[in-house]
Design goal:
Number of strands: 25
Strand order of the largest sheet: 1-5-4-3-2
Structural class: mainly beta
Strand content: over 45%
Oligomer: single chain
Radius of gyration: 19 Å
Order of helices and strands: EEEEEEEEEEEEEEEEEEEEEEEEE
Length: 325
């Protein structure tokens, strides 16, 4: 299952230049995720495999090729290192595969959730580690699955019925994003997440005390600005202050919208970040939550930062090189 390659220098000139990794996939690469420590890179491809690389500032080496999916692999996600080196993947086959590295370059299949959905699983993400080893999957069948690791090493499954047109993306609220001043000391805050769907909407969900999930009706979503095409990705920003939350969403309508909530029960208010020249596929926050990376269909990756006045500015611009003839 694992194959090794000698360390290759990263291409790119200088410390500030973008660096490129030859993934060695036989088809399109759809996702790339760096682990918690920034030492491992996982990639997902239409060739039905996931590749894992050991990376440093100056070199990379192929550590493993993980197989098992029966169709294109759309996305990968790393767990928090509290649970070990665990990597999940999802794909067109409606399955979530969870692998663990038991020792360097030796990976085992920890769990195979096959037939988890009736159609493609388009996005996955592990929840904050404070809530346990839990992963959410967004599917074209209109549901979001919640896989929870149990004490007997089994995995429980729950479903959120989102929208019948399909769900493309899911993102968890950070632990500590909310604080109830009226609650007793030590009162539990339940997990929350946001989804983006083919109905052009984002939705916020919260787990109830009985374990069931329901749409969060305590904080309405403003309709003064919205997407007019499929929402392709959503990303909940790292929490800087309790009850002050920010979510980014991107769409095939070429827009990125920043949703801001100032107060536990306050309305989510939208701000247009930018209208791009092509559909926007992915949004991703920096670890501190001060910077947003945006990946669009014109081979561009741009970085954005909010000023003191709340206005967003582009701070860096990377353009993907076109493949050589």
């Amino acid at each position: 299952m694992a194959s090794a390659a000698s360390a290759m220098p990263l291409s790119g000139q200088g410390a500030s230049a973008p660096m490129y990794v030859d993934t060695q996939h036989d088809d399109l690469c759809h996702d790339a995720q760096v682990d918690y420590y920034g030492c491992k890179l996982a990639t997902a491809s239409s060739d039905r495999t996931v590749k894992v690389f050991n990376i440093s500032e100056t070199a990379y080496e192929l550590s493993a090729t993980l197989q098992g999916h029966e169709g294109p692999v759309w996305q990968v996600a790393w767990s928090h290192p509290k649970y070990g080196v665990i990597l999940a993947s999802c794909g067109f086959d409606g399955a979530v595969l969870i692998h663990r590295e038991t020792r360097p370059r030796d990976w085992i299949l920890l769990h195979a959730a096959r037939n988890l959905h009736e159609s493609s699983i388009n996005g996955i993400e592990f929840c904050p580690h404070e809530y346990g080893l839990v992963i959410a999957g967004a599917s074209s069948d209109g549901r979001v699955s919640i896989l929870t690791h149990q004490s007997d090493n089994s995995w429980a499954v729950e479903y959120i019925q989102d929208n019948p047109l399909g769900v493309n993306a899911v993102s968890w609220a950070p632990h500590g994003a909310y604080f109830d001043e009226t609650a007793e000391e030590g009162a539990k805050e339940f997990p929350r997440l946001v989804t983006g769907g083919c109905d052009n909407r984002i939705r916020f969900w919260i787990q109830q005390e009985n374990g069931q999930w329901q749409e969060d009706s305590s904080a309405p979503v403003s309709k003064e600005l919205s997407h007019s095409d499929w929402v392709r990705d959503v990303a909940w920003a790292p929490s800087l202050l309790p009850n002050v939350n920010i979510v980014a969403s991107c769409s095939e309508d070429r827009k990125v919208i920043i949703w801001t909530q100032n107060g536990r029960y306050a309305e989510w208010k939208p701000t247009l970040l930018h209208t791009f020249d092509a559909p926007v596929w992915r949004v991703s926050w920096s670890v501190t939550g001060h910077m947003l990376a945006v990946s669009s269909g014109d081979n561009d990756v741009t970085l954005w930062k909010s000023g003191i006045d709340g206005v967003w500015h582009q701070v860096e611009h990377f353009e993907e090189p076109l493949p050589s003839e």
